[in-house]
Amino acid sequence: MKTNKIYLGLLFSAMVLLFANCTIREGEMAGAATQRGYEIYKTCESNTLYFIDNKVDICFKLNAWLEADSSLKDLLEDKWFPNYKIRKMSDGMYGLYAGADLAYSIETGNLPLSDPSAQWILSWRGTERDLPNYYDRPYALTTSFIQGTQELHVDHADSTNSWHVTIAGADSSEAFLDLNIVALSRLMPQSLIDDDFTVTGTGKYDFLEGKIWKDGELAGWTHHTCLSFEIKEPMQNFFAYEGLTWNGGKVDLEASNENGEKLLVNAEFKGPYNLQITYKDKVQIWNVNTEQVTEIF
Amino acid sequence: MRTIGVLGALLLFVEFVGAQTLDSAQVSAIDKNFWKTSLPRHELQWGVGCPLLEEFIIYGMGSDDLSGDFDRPHNWFDKEVYRGSRGTTLFNWSFSYLYRVCKFLWVGADVTYIGFYDVYYDKFTHQKAYINSDQLLTFMPKIRFSYLNRKYVTLYSGISCGIGWVIHSEKKEVNVVTNWAFQATAFGVKAGTSWFGFAEVGLGYKGFGVIGLGYHFNRQNRQLFKRNSL
Question: Which of A152, A256, B138, B202 can pair with B164 through a Cys bridge, CB separation 3.0 to 4.6 Å?
């Protein structure tokens, strides 16, 4: 009997030791020192190119549609505006309709975009549908231009293949874009995103997060982050596997929040796919294809 | 190999003890209600289990990839940290009470507890920044079938199903998530008299494997049992 108890004690001790060796999980690596700076840069890139692709390019596509032979108009309308129908609203004024709803109106002044005097205005009613869909996009989409009537101005700049694009956020928003877009492959591209182009200028995006409701109405947001940028050297577009990106140029960025905190980032391409990020006095080269740091200074 | 060795030793021990005792059929032959006085009716168990399954339940298969933060600009201003090794309370602790309703059927409840602790370090200074923790507490009513009831050894299986609370603390903010909890014990063995040891293999909130100590109440008829079994 006493022997049995000793056996039990030994068995218990052995199993305690056995389980005491369980490893739960090793620690993770510290990660790239400029990771946060890279995220900020990518958010700026993503939003600017999204804006050019989804708003500015409407003007270029409509211009190509207006310039096209009548036999090609239906084809181009189906290709570029599959969700809309183009209707002439008045002299020099066109509308893009989603069913019976006017989604965009475009004031052309009866001048094609290729005309040096062209001053086009693209207007739309900012709605909730322009809010960022966090789960579909890797980087946040700005909430800058989702309220009130938005007006995007596309004017000819000082050379034949460049356009001045401006928009200001409605209401109290400080958001704005003031960009110069230069077409590289042809003087008058039919669609910007099907062509090579560069972007220069400045801008500021709002990011509103966390809705606060009061009496069933939107009363505010828990977080308000701003991202300002100034392009120092023209940013060159590039069609990567995951979509439109930048692959050349230099941009300074400043992120700030409602608490007055600021983060400064400098992003400069040092060759194809090699983006140098300077953040919190750390300098690293990122490969924009693999999104990995390739060089540390 | 070490696990197989320990389990082998355990089975040999069961056979060794079992060979020296009467089986339940013989006891029933003397008196079909004899188990009420000869076998323990009340039981308390204290056990420790392997914590790996609980880690999976709380954290899943997710990695610590930072990509989840990319789309939340307000997170840009959070302290930049990385996680150190994940610590636990070493074991998944369980406490059980069981009452023997009839010879082969027990009812009772399990209470289990395990805590995980993640220490985060500043990415630039590598100093400790903060600690996040997840603590799992469960209460699970339980039913057990003991299919071999001998004087010193009992073999059993069982199932528990109840409620669990994950108390998540992140940067000093605490929230509690309530969910179902369960434990299926495929094989369990306990050996001893008033004090006994036990080992279980199963799946659930107590862990894959559980070992521990327990205590039987109402062993006052032990002498009677001894006398009749001779």
Answer: B138
Report chain B residues whose CB lies below 8 A from the CB of A7.
13
Find the CB nearest B83 among A7, A27, A263: A27
Judge whether A105 and A123 are in contact, CB under 8 Å: yes
The CA distance from A199 to A180, in Å, is 6
Q: Could you give the residue ranges of the DSSP H alpha helices within chain A?
A: 2-20, 35-51, 57-67, 70-80
**Which 3 state secondary structure label does DSSP give A10?**
helix
**Chain segment A2-34, per-residue pLDDT in tens:** 667 766 776 766 566 555 545 567 777 888 899
- CA B33/CA B49 separation, integer angstroms: 35
CA–CA separation, A115 and A111 (whole Å): 6
What is the arithmetic mean of pLDDT over A253-261?
93
Q: Name every chain B residue with its beta carbon within 8 A of the beta carbon of A28.
A: 64, 82-83
pTM, two decimals, is 0.70
Interface contact flag, B83 A28, Cβ < 8 Å: yes
Which of B71, B88, B199 faces A140 most closely, judged by CB atoms? B71
Q: Which residues of A touch B88 (CB under 8 A)?
A: 24
**What pLDDT does residue B230 have?**
39
CA-nearest of B68, B67, B38, B36 to B223 is B38
- Assess contact for B144 and B109: CB atoms under 8 A: no
Nearest CA to B119 out of A37, A279, A24 is that of A24
Residue B18: predicted pLDDT = 45
Q: What does the block give as tokens for B46?
A: 């204290």
Our separate counts of H helices and E strands in chain A read 4, 15
Q: What are the structural domains, with CATH classification, of chain B?
A: 2-62+75-229 (2.40.160.20)
Would the CB atoms of A140 and B88 count as touching at under 8 Å?
no
User: Do residue B152 and residue A4 have CB atoms under 8 angstroms apart?
Assistant: yes
**Is the predicted pLDDT of residue B198 greater than 60, yes or no?**
yes
**CB-based contact, B113 to chain A, within 8 Å:** no
Exposed/middle/buried for A211, CB within 10 Å: 0-12, 13-18, 19+? exposed
Range in A134-148, A219-233, B62-76, B156-170 with the lowest mean pLDDT: B62-76
A8 φψ region: left (φ > 0), alpha (ψ -120 to 50), beta (else): alpha
ipTM of the complex: 0.80
Cβ–Cβ contact B87 with A under 8 A: yes
A8 at B interface, C-beta within 8 A:
yes
Residue B161 has pLDDT above 60, yes or no: yes
Distance from CA of B128 to the nearest CA of A (A): 12
Residue range B97-121: average pLDDT? 90
CB-based contact A225 B51, cutoff 8 Å: no
Tokens of A222: 């828990």
Higher pLDDT, B69 or A137: A137
